[in-house]
Specification:
Elements lengths: L10 E4 H4 E5 L11 E8 L1 H4 L6 E2 L4 E3 L1 H5 L11 E5 L3 E7 L4 E2 L4 E5 L6 H10 L1 H6 L11 H6 L1 E4 L2 H40 L19 E2 L6 E2 L3 E4 L4 E5 L11 E8 L1 H4 L4 E2 L4 E3 L1 H6 L10 E4 L7 E4 L4 E2 L3 E6 L5 H10 L1 H9 L9 H5 L2 E4 L2 H41 L7
Parallel strand pairs: 3-8, 4-7, 15-20, 16-19
Antiparallel strand pairs: 1-10, 2-9, 3-5, 6-7, 11-12, 13-22, 14-21, 15-17, 18-19, 18-21
Helix pairs in contact: 4-7, 7-13
Length: 420
């Protein structure tokens, strides 16, 4: 465990001494009788974007026959799930009975010795050290024996519970904010569909336009309400294609200006954190590539059709086209419009090439429905609180995550002690 001083009442224990370490398995995919049952079957992919401590199910279920005809095991609720390969280190706690594929080494804790939530956070804390003892040439993997013999610092059981519950209270708040954001996004999406797909926005009398006899006219995009237009994207604002400053100049990077790349956009309504960032010098090197808060970023090369909003002044790389709306009130209309255009953007990007690519000229000239200003302004009023609340929740989660991540090593090493 190194030369760090261990608290007197803490002990060094092998994981195999505080619980059972159990692998998983995959029923034969050739037999349809093995899948589609009632038993949740978790794979590492199910944890790749999992934002909660507990997990109930994955993408697929297996049957009892599938379980019995494979090396998969039925694990009780409370089992700590740990991915042991491809990749190593995703962790969750089973909320109910589940099974896993062979990409897991799961721990059923002995409740007299270890608190499962504490082991959950311990595995997060020791992730890098566990990965360092992995073996394998094609890909690294943690064997059951290796994990059983891995040593961790273990406080007395009552202190384990206090430590884990303190950390879990932070994660619970993060989870609640995340769930609220999903609900808010769904509400905003439903309003957009009602207004701009079903054309049931309020008419002059406050009644649903189309079902109240609102006149529809033909356009090159299909039927649209009378007095609406079809415009090109560039009519809504300035289109900016990003650019990467020279990587050879280190003074341009590791500042506080977000530099957005496609991986930063996945499942992100607002981009809060980015892998790379620019300094003031990096920004000024290509000042004309800066985009303000609440610009809309759209991925246009290779992975086409992701849509995110900037949370502050940012720049992007060349795989992203962004639009800076000329009218603030069209921001959320454009956001949802891009989300609804996913398949169209894919079609624009194909162009007979192996790699999807929408160049800036093509992007700028895409034709879209342009509602009357009055309708877009009213839509902005309806959904503005949704986006403000989502952004506030994301910023709060960012702070909470930083607090949790700073507390984790101190609590797990005994540097900070907590009472019951």
């Amino acid at each position: 465990m190194g030369d760090n001083k261990v608290p007197e009442d803490w002990s060094i224990k092998k994981i195999g001494d505080i619980g059972q370490v159990i692998g998983g398995g995959t029923p034969s995919t050739k037999d349809k009788l093995y899948y589609g049952g009632e038993i949740p079957w978790i794979t590492p992919k199910d944890l790749s974007d999992h934002k909660f401590t507990f997990i109930e199910r994955g993408e697929r279920n297996i049957t009892k026959i599938g379980l019995n005809n494979s090396s998969a095991r039925l694990l009780p609720g409370g089992t700590v799930l740990f991915t042991s390969r491809a990749p190593i280190g995703y962790v969750a706690i089973a909320k109910n009975a589940v099974s896993t594929n062979q990409g897991f080494k799961s721990i059923i804790c002995n409740p007299q010795k270890a608190y499962n939530k504490f082991i959950y956070y311990a595995l997060k804390f020791y992730k890098d050290k566990i990965e360092n003892v992995a073996s394998g040439s094609t890909f690294k993997e943690i064997s059951g024996t290796t994990l059983k013999n891995f040593e961790i610092l273990l406080p007395p059981l009552d202190e384990q519970k206090v430590i884990a519950d303190r950390l879990f209270s932070i994660d619970s708040k993060i989870g609640l904010n995340h769930q609220m954001n999903k609900a808010l996004e769904a509400i905003g999406q439903a309003i957009f569909k009602h207004w701009f797909v079903d054309f049931e926005f309020p008419n002059e009398e406050g009644k649903p336009y189309k079902s109240s006899g609102g006149e529809m006219v033909d356009s090159e995009l299909g039927e649209i309400p009378k007095d609406w237009k079809v415009n090109q994207l560039k009519d809504f604002g300035d289109i900016i294609c990003g650019k990467t400053p020279p990587k050879s100049n280190k003074e341009y990077f590791e500042g506080n200006i977000p530099f957005i790349k496609i991986p930063d956009m996945h499942n992100q309504l607002f981009v809060i954190n980015t892998e790379d960032s620019l300094t003031k010098e990096g920004k000024e090197y290509q000042e004309n590539k800066s985009i303000p808060e609440k610009s809309i970023c759209v991925s246009c090369i290779a992975t086409v059709g992701l849509v995110s909003l900037t949370s502050k002044e940012s720049q992007t790389n060349q795989q992203i086209n962004s639009i800076i709306p000329k009218n603030y009130y069209s921001t959320y209309y454009l956001h949802y419009m891009f989300k609804s255009m996913y398949q169209l953007l894919q079609d624009y990007g194909s162009g007979g090439s192996a790699t999807l690519n929408i160049n800036t000229k093509t992007f700028s000239n895409i034709k879209v429905m342009s509602p009357k200003d009055k309708v877009i302004k009213e839509f902005h009023k309806r959904v503005n609180f949704i986006f403000d609340k989502i952004l506030n929740n994301l910023n709060e989660n960012n702070i909470l995550s930083q607090i949790r991540d700073s507390l984790l090593p101190k609590l797990m090493s005994g540097q900070i002690r907590v009472g019951g």
